[in-house]
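Backbone-to-sequence.
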């Protein structure tokens, strides 16, 4: 699990289960206060999320909304997706299947793919 600057404008976070999940999101939020960027959260190693994780995701979304940056969740497994559906979070977050698709989506949205 790690926080990586994929570019000057995009940060990729490889999440894992708790307690690392909460720690990584806290570290990410601290970084974004200093230097806002778009964020891709990779959930491929996350087996489940709890209410504390959901609360942290909502705080991150609010913080990023204040800076007009984009947040994409990717690699969400069936169990985590079920929690997101039940809580209605599937309607407020953007999702892709994998990191490559998330990065391409952000690049297109930022106009980096224009020729």
């Amino acid at each position: 699990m790690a926080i990586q600057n994929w570019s000057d404008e995009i940060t990729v976070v490889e999440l894992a289960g708790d307690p690392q999940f909460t720690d990584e999101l806290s570290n990410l939020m601290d970084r974004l206060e200093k230097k806002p960027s778009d964020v891709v959260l990779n959930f491929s190693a996350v087996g489940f999320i709890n209410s504390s994780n959901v609360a942290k995701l909502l705080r991150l979304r609010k913080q990023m909304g204040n800076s007009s940056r984009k947040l994409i969740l990717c690699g969400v497994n069936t169990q985590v997706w079920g929690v997101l559906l039940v809580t209605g979070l599937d309607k407020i977050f953007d999702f892709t299947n994998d990191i490559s698709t998330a990065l391409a989506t952000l690049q297109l949205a930022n106009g980096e793919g224009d020729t």
